[in-house]
Amino acid sequence: MNKFLVLFCFAVTALSSPQGGREVDVTYVGDLTETEHDVGGKVYILDQDTLVIDEFSYDGNGFGVYINVATKGRNLRGFAKNRIDVPYPSGSEGEPIEDKYTGDGQLVIDLKQVGVKARDVQWLSVWCTVFEMSFGHLEF
């Protein structure tokens, strides 16, 4: 995987300085495969406990949409069977993603909440619980 130096401007205290963003080394994983509802974004590993979806887009028209990861599976069916709900935003019980994002959004995914390390993630999905389908995903 290529390493890029990216400037992230997080509003998350644990990741940003009081004055705004900071430069950090991240590992680019790839782009979400756009499948439904204009989902898109670039996925990065910030550290072993944190994934970032940068330039996140979503039309906001789905229902029961959550971030999921899988550490087991060989294909979409296998990943979906082994998916783990990651509460978003961090520290919450996990709220559905209902807002519209136009490509300038950024989601910070805290894997510590579910006891998963980034090195073990094989799949990330923007998952619709109502229709049991991925609106956008990426294999690591």
Tell me the fraction of residues in β-strands, as a range. Answer: over 45%
Rg from alpha-carbon coordinates = 14 Å
Q: What strand line-up does the widest sheet have?
A: 1-2-4-5-8
Helix content: under 10%
Q: What structural category characterises the helix and strand content?
A: mainly beta
Nearest-integer average pLDDT: 87
Rounded to the nearest angstrom, the distance between the terminal CA atoms is: 10 Å
Please give the largest β-sheet: 5 strands, antiparallel
Query: How many β strands by DSSP?
Result: 10
Multimerization status: single chain
Residue stretches low in confidence (pLDDT < 50, at least 5 long) are: 1-19
Tell the overall outline. globular
The ordered string of helix (H) and strand (E) elements is: EEEEEEHEEEE
Helix count, DSSP H or I runs of 4 or more residues: 1
Written account of the structure:
The chain has 1 helix and 10 strands. It has one helix at residues 76-81, and strands spanning 3-8, 22-31, 33-34, 40-47, 50-58, 65-70, 84-86, 101-110, 123-128, 133-139. The strands form 2 sheets. A 5-stranded antiparallel sheet has the order 1-2-4-5-8, with no helix packed on it. Strands 3-10-9-6-7 form a 5-stranded antiparallel sheet, with no helix packed on it. A hairpin with a 2-residue loop joins strand 4 (40-47) and strand 5. The N and C termini lie close together (10 Å). Mean pLDDT is 87; it is low at 1-19.
